[in-house]
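User: Quick sanity check before I run a bigger batch. Here is a single chain. Can you write out its predicted 3D structure?
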Amino acid sequence: MELPKAFIRNIGTLLGETECRRLLEALEAERTCSIRMNPVKSEGLEAIPDSSLSVVPWCTSGFSLSNRPAFTFDPLLHAGVYYVQEASSMFLEQALKQYVSSPVTMLDLCAAPGGKSTHARSLLPDGSLLVANEVNRSRAQILAENLTKWGHPDVAVTNNDPADFSRLPAFFDVILTDVPCSGEGMFRKDPVAVQEWSEANVELCRQRQRRIVAAVWQSLKPGGLLIYSTCTYNTEENEENVRWIRDELGADVLSLDVPAEWHVTGNLLAGESFPVYRFLPHKTKGEGFFLAVLQKAGDMEKEELKGVNGGKEKKKKNVGGGGRPGASLSQIASDWLLAPDEYELEQINDRLIALPRCHLSALAAIRRSLRVVQAGVAVGEQKGRDLIPAHALAMSRILRRDAFAQAALTYEQAIAYLRREAIVLPAETPRGYVLLTYQDVPLGFVKHIGNRANNLYPPEWRIRSQA
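Assistant: Done. Predicted structure follows.
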């Protein structure tokens, strides 16, 4: 790897000659690979049977692998059993566990592809709502896919510019800003990051990061937490921006309890001692990462959010069809849910959505103010008088599995299903909608019509590559 000379010079100034040499040697070494398990889906499963696992110290569900498997061809990945994520970025767990102990409304502002969002959703206390946002439309779809597979109902995905959140003043208890950066910490992983690096780009990123934080600051409640993170090493995008947030926005910089054996590096800005946390690959197993926790001045106040859905979606009244004789679509959908009384069923165009009742007012405010990609859990789609179960329902933890006939797939069948190929089920399989499983984990639905089963896997998610 040929690194920019200016980068080497700057790192030498920042770390000193010896540490700089060790970092550069680490960047030439083979990069690590790690996964984070989904606590709801992974119990009793060995997700990567061909790799030895070692625990990521700062993440209770994180594991480093001895080699990188062909993840695309593991059905458990597509079922949301685990997420492939850099070990260092799993350090988010420490901020949330040490400072969030009661239900919150949290925003992950720059969320795609979804690593930190899925992690946060697993960590937040029950009763919390996560809003995961991505400004780029195509990346917002990837974010929605990954959160759908993760299977938690208390999530909304939005596609907005940071400035749009000014429409929701004092709305969020926690905001994560994993801001776009110069990507120095990704040099070992992404050759493009090396090619695009320049001192001028570092300065552009520093300014952009401040604009992003300033734009979303008023959406944070008094007393709320701002978690600031990057995947870069320099102090311009890290400590200097944290100092700016402290001085210009009046935030307090909070400390985390971090064991010395984790070898996390602290503040490198001359003349400053506020707590920050930097991961360097020659000291910690993972790629480059930086995180700081800040608190907005003032006392946290719980506010009642009032209002109704102001979105433009056209709603329809429920009509009867399918399932129990004489049952309405809402009745059929309710039968598919584990705790139907906890959800409001809403029909938008041809789709039936389950929205958590405890978040209805917050979701209404979000819909009035933002461009929402998805919220709650898609339960089914109306086709004539029939309700077709949605793939999101199969992925969700609110699915009542015994509401459907089930069929277990072999590995070969599971891959064929994920390629959206035809599936042949045992002759004794009942006709109708069947939930397919792999290693007893839901993988999706088919409609069994006797001699064949119509594959209902989302076409845009199918495996396209060859083994």
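The first strand starts at residue 33 and ends at 37.

User: Great, the batch can go ahead then.
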